[in-house]
Amino acid sequence: MNGxxxxxxxxxNTKGLNGTGVNGKGVHSNGFHHVSVNGSxxxxxxxxxxxxxxxxxxxxxxxxxNPIRAIVDGMKLTPNVDKPMIALSIGDPTVFGNxxxxxxxxxxxxxxxxxxxxxxYAPSVGYLKSRQAVSNFYSCPEAPLxxxxxxxxxxxxQAIELAISVLCNPGDNILVPCPGxxxxxxxxxxxxxxxxxxxxxxxxxxxxxxxxxxxLIDERTSCLIVTNPSNPCGSVFNREHLQKILKxxxxxxxxxxxxxIYSDMVFPGCHCPxxxxxxxxxPILSCGGLAKRWLVPGWRxxxxxxxxxxxxxxxxxxxxxxxLSQRILGACTxxxxxLESILNNTPQSFYNKTISFLKSNSEICFSELSTxxxxxxxxxxxxxxxxxxxxxxxxxxxxxxxxxxxxLVTEQSVFCLPASAFEYPNFFRIVVTVPEExxxxxxxRIREFCQLQCVESS
Length: 458
Known about the structure:
Aspartate Aminotransferase, domain 1, 458 residues, 16 strands, globular, four-stranded antiparallel β-sheet, single chain, Aspartate Aminotransferase, domain 2, Aminotransferase_I/II_large, phenylalanine catabolism, Tyrosine aminotransferase, Tyrosine_aminoTrfase, alpha/beta
């Protein structure tokens, strides 16, 4: 051993690794020392060592921010101790226990567990049988699907992440609805992708401002996100409006990411076709899952449906999705094992009961708040949400929607999410999944709060 602590006669042939030589100083010609450990050579790069610990989060971690958390975490939320808290802010239909999933769904999961067939790894894109079940459930003559067109994911959130990741590079931009689901921006910005917000129009039941949306498209626009039915608006686009959206996408050759997690959660009298069923040339990645329609968000089962019009995506996008899915080795296998039974055996009466409840609660909320001066609720047509506009002239003591909703908690123990969390100020969002008596009570408190503010300001 020489004075540097490096063996002068390596334990392998003197050509070193990859057929390259070792010079007389025991240093590889590529600048690495070869250190013999248990008879093997490992490269030890020559460089100065760190003098102190300096561990910092990655740029991706630093660039990851959920706009909802950014708003809510900064609010001073101290409920009135004399009134029990009513949270109308959480988009989880299971919170209050009044909307259980169907017994058939539970039995499907129990059957998958008892079978002992789903305790190991599945293919990263999901079991073929489970993917086939999803494709059968969503396939239609206008938008046919096969198992190869389905990627199973860990919830709809991961489906959205995979779709954005496969379509976009750092420096690209995506078009996102405003107001819209905050996760789109959280995911995109962390990946170095710019977000351009296109306006929705409350006076037109939250239809897209198509002219504004189209004006944002440029050569680096790699994806248009369409959320239908909508979180946070509860809006449902009709066939004609969806066709107009497709025309814009077609004109500029921009693929669509369709967030359809609330598909079929549509109130009676409304019709909500999938956007893929109307597309003749625009390729679409449709993201969905069990979370909302089956009322099991914690089961983390989502999917991407690949609608590849005219082979625009081809094999490359599909292979890209497969590669990306391999990063976490797929969705929960137990739920995958139950998926076919869940999709085929859940009775229509369960879906109808859920939708009937959501519509009734929405009507109660809309009716109660429509007569409150300064409030302008927009009646939803589906999903689980209702947006309420604030006429700030009626509430001069408040700076904005965050201030308003913060004081509403302080005085009335009712928490609504300020729409600044969706980058749409002077609105707030109400979740309509709470028990009916709680919805009536909450609306009464909101009315009392607004009346007191108007009196005090006058």
